[in-house]
Every structure is written in structure tokens, then in C-alpha cells.
């Protein structure tokens, strides 16, 4: 029996197109514990959003989960029936999208949508559903929630709409929320407010959170652990401060080096050379090989996943130096 809330092993999600098979998620493994905040980081096209959709069972044709295992509270999700998936979504795990209008219906009032989200999973009175909806809006910082709940989505600003989407995800007290870059389109002030609210909610409810983003500065202040994705693979993961202070994979090192900072004033920002490989025609061996300053002939082979005692994992033949010796090594 696993002690983890979410346990993903060798997950593979492909998209079958006329041009070829797009290996969007290529054999990733990760875990999330109760109350933990995990940051899932990577460039556009790295597979991080598809990972979230795979967990939710929302991969549409021509895509499908081609292999691996996703267990939630020790129950295998990939063998669920449609009815079980409907109960699972919203009730046990909720997803917050980058665009809140993917959650909100523009022609229905907020109260109608939130009450329906509760009563789809529970037999409660309309008055009780309304009370819980108002409470959820208050939790995410909506002022005068008793009045604003009667508004339509277009009557809210972008930041407030995103708060409503977060509140909708919280309605059924899920064990896990997957947030897919929900603050990317917002200004930094509103972004900071929403991140602060999410931290408070996780501490208050012991809810787990997967925060999907390309922004390492967001993860630095929010998450306990981080997993870095590249070309459909997790190439490094571990405690967030440990990874940021001492990156082992050259790609992680490049990502951190490209972030502006006060201690780099006047310096030219680092740019990772080259472009990400096509997920239809991945190069043999390490997918980062063509862009890597440490690459050698051995990188033509698929690198193993090396594990260290402190919970660090890296998928690289030439990782950076670490204070302890690796404890295990497995094929990726």
C-alpha cells in the first residue's frame, strides 16, 4: 500500500496525428502527499499541462493515455468507468485552468453555477449549497460575497474571475487541486494575492496542490517540492529550495540562469541555446543532448534516473555535484 495521495508511475500520453505520434508525456513518475504543494515546471510544450489533463481523465482524441499507472489513494484511475470519473472530478480532485472562462459559463450567474457544482456530487438543499458557495467566495478574497455571487462572469475583472474559478474548485473540499498556470495572464499584484490565498487554503484545509507553471519565481515562494519537465520527461525533482540552490541537470541550471535577479543587475541574461526537439521525432538518448554543454557520446543512450538520500532525483549522465552519494539508479 502506498503512503502517497497521488502516485504516478511511468505515465505515457500520446497524440496520434497524421504527422506521427506526439509523445507529450513520455514515462514520467512522481508522487504527491496530503497537504503538499508540488511545482511542475517547464517550457511550453514540455508536457506539464498534458500531465494534469491525464490525471483528470480529460485527454481528448486524438490523444490517449498509452501506458503507465495513476493511483489516487491507492485506487487505479486509468481503469475507472465514466461514472467513476465524473464522481472523481470535482469531488476528489479539481482543476483550475489558465483561462477562468473554461470553468465559468458566461450566460449563467455565479450562484447558479456554484450551486450546480455542489449538487452534482451531493444531495444538499439549495440553501445549504448557496451558503457553502458564499463561504468559498469569501475564502478566496471576493469582497461582499453575498452580493457578488449574484453577478455574471463578465461583471468581474480577470483577477476576480480567476478567484471565482478557484472557489468553484474548492466547493466539494477536494483532496488535490491541479492549477494549470492560473495566474499567468494576471498582473503581478493580483498574482501575488492569489498565490497568498492558495497558500493559506492549503495550510487551513490540508489540501494538496500541483501548481503547473513556467515561472520558477512563483514556485520558489509557493511549493515545497518541484519537478522539472523537458520534452515529456521529468528530468529533475526534489525539495524546491535545494533544486534552486543546487541544480543538478544542465537544463534546470539554464532555466534558473535565465531568471532576472537583483544580484544580476547589468549582466546579460543566460539563454539556453537551440530549440526544444519535436515530440514526434525525438532524438536518440537524452532529449536535451543537442542543447547541452556537457553532452558526450554516452548521452546517445537514455540516461538513468539517479536518486539521492535527500529526495533529489536527476535524469542525466553528467549531473552537477551534490553533497551526498546517489542511493539508487533506475532506467528512465
UniProtKB/TrEMBL annotation:
Keyword ATP-binding attributed: yes
Membrane topology: Peripheral membrane protein
A cellular component term, taken from the record's GO annotations: plasma membrane
Gene Ontology MF terms in the entry: ATP binding; ATP hydrolysis activity
Principal subcellular localisation of the protein: membrane
Keyword Membrane: yes
Pfam families named among the record's database cross-references: ABC_tran, oligo_HPY
Keywords of the record: ATP-binding, Cell membrane, Membrane, Nucleotide-binding, Transport
GO BP, sorted A to Z: peptide transport
Sequence ranges assigned to domain ABC transporter in this UniProt record: 8-256
Classification via Gene3D superfamilies: P-loop containing nucleotide triphosphate hydrolases
Places the protein is found: Cell inner membrane
UniProt record similarity statement: Belongs to the ABC transporter superfamily.
Protein name: Oligopeptide atp-binding protein
